[in-house]
Amino acid sequence: MNIAFLSRQNLFFSVQRRRNRGLNGLYIVVGLFLLAYAMLFPGLLGISGFSKFTQNWFPLALVTMAQALLMLNGGISLAIGPLVSLGAVIAATTMGGPLGPIGGLLAVAASGLLVGALIGVIVAQLRLPAIIVTLAGSFIIGGIALIILPRPGGFIPDWLSNLLAGNGPVAFGLLVLLLVCWKLFLATPLGLGIYAVGDNPVGAFRSGVPVDRVRVTAFALSGLLTALVGLFVAAQTGSGDPVIGTPFTLNSIAGAVLGGVGFLGGKGTMRGAICGSLLLSVMINVMFFLGFSPVTQYVAQGLIILAAVAIPELTSQWSRKP
Amino acid sequence: MKFQALRNLSCHRTLLAGAATVAFVLAAGAGPASAAANCIKGDRKAPYTVGWANIYSVPTWMKQTEGTITAEVEELKKSGLVKDLMITDAQGNAQTQIQQIQSMIDANVDAIIVIAGSSSALDRVISDACDKGIAVVNFDSLVDTDQVTAKINTDSNEWGATAAKWMVDQLGGKGKIIVMNGPAGISVSDDRRKGAQPVLDANPGLEIITETNTEYNAAPAQEAMTSLLFANAEIDGVLSLGGALSAGSVMAFDRQGRGQVPTTGENARQFLELWKEKGLKGWATMQPNWLGALAVYTAVQALEGKDVPAFVKVPLPVIDDTTIDTYLARAGQFPADGYIYSDYDKALFDKLLAQ
């Protein structure tokens, strides 16, 4: 029994090590950037500075999680941005009405789950490529957001804005809570299935993993997460904007890939993805405090991303040589 | 309704601010001669650090605008009023712009000038900046909140109306015209077109054959006009509402060997040069790039304790046959795909701020 326990432990850590491989470089780069940021802006270490920074990073962290959740099981979504916008406009149009803030929150969550599940069913049942389904979905969702709220506006109660995006680290707390939930979810059969389906769908199916159900669940959860980001963005800005989410689509993919999540599924970790999004976010602030001009920022941004991906690759090649 | 509510609110705020100022003056015995502008607390001293939060730096118009900002900052550095300019580029992402304005607040800049990427999304971060006593001056694309030191812009409605009136005069109120607009759903394009409508309604003799919606570039406009020329034997005028659309139209007429017709437009160098070269009847106005310079100047004036208007309406400079030569004489100083903006100086700025 002791031996069995030990080997289980070993298996766990060897899997974790395998998943962390190639990410050490990213961790170091992110750590250095955070250190640089704290030195350039000591206010980061205060409650208010920390809260403001994490609030600005929070939406990107969440959409990257939503994207990574899909990419881990071999999917991808090009509808992340429009779905953020949809969440934002639903929040901004319902919270001032008879539904109230709680009803608005439920409406956003329900629409995210519904849209996500619908995409998931189409992808899983009709066996259509996720990239095409979500591309088409992005136009439909974006259009609906524009119909609901044609110009920026709407209403978010002040207390909600101040709670989520005030001077307290509520957003960071939510992120930690979400990570804990993710760990718990991974311990369930459905959660385990996410990696299994991404890594080897046929093998997973033969081992009794409900492949289709895993895929639909992943899309539904990802949709829920994305729509809630919309709610957060609406609270952060105090209003709804029907096109606010657009850049999130590409940035969520960039964050996930930077964090070592592979396009083909089964490869990568959520912590890597979150670190990837953190790098994208902290980079902007560090370059500002270093006084980079916009043109230099474009170049530097590209170089940093390239370095974060290339350095671990190069070091692993060197270390393999005798 | 919402607009009314907002206006009432701002009225309230002004009243409160006024009451506070009176109380302050009474308490201090001898206060400053003029009331301080919005957001200004009077605790910031020259030389100031200015933050320029751009939404997107790539288009030529933006580059030229940034040019006037840096030139103005150099000027103010000489007089010891400004020590530093920090520039950010949100690359079109309103969320990034929020983050960058937050960084400017963290860096404790004294003034922030901004072209907004979203009329609503920046409201809270800009209010935060205002609460910290930072002079916030917003120009070109405006935000909804009134928690700013000043907003600066031209009037897009007036743009459309004036262009339409000129066309009516040229054609004696009778004829067939084509209306060229910017992209659909863009507020500037929308507002200019809306401004033209009452004038067109009042002159039913002016018949609109069709309208185009394209990017504000010459190439797509030329393409659209070329196919319209094939379809329509009689076109008496082109009411083009901005960008380089008019240049595309003139080139399409030229390529097809058709006689040029009265054409309105913007101060794109390409259009002004074609206007002179082809000898057509033209009219143009502009969104002056020096709105950027004016924004910096306004912020520094406010920080210096001067009262500045909450909204600075900049009159549209007009280019017609009598003034076009003065513009073309300076063409060499501007990029080939750029905009030849009207001259500006400190006296003009002071006059605009004295409204």
TrEMBL record, chain B:
Residues 54-307 form the Periplasmic binding protein domain. Keywords: Signal. Its main location: other. It comes from the Bacteria. The keyword Isomerase does not apply. Residues 1-35 form the signal peptide. It is found in: Cell envelope. The keyword Protease does not apply. GO terms for cellular component: cell envelope. GO terms for molecular function: carbohydrate binding. Belongs to the bacterial solute-binding protein 2 family. This is ABC transporter substrate-binding protein. The lineage of its organism: Bacteria, Pseudomonadati, Pseudomonadota, Alphaproteobacteria, Hyphomicrobiales.
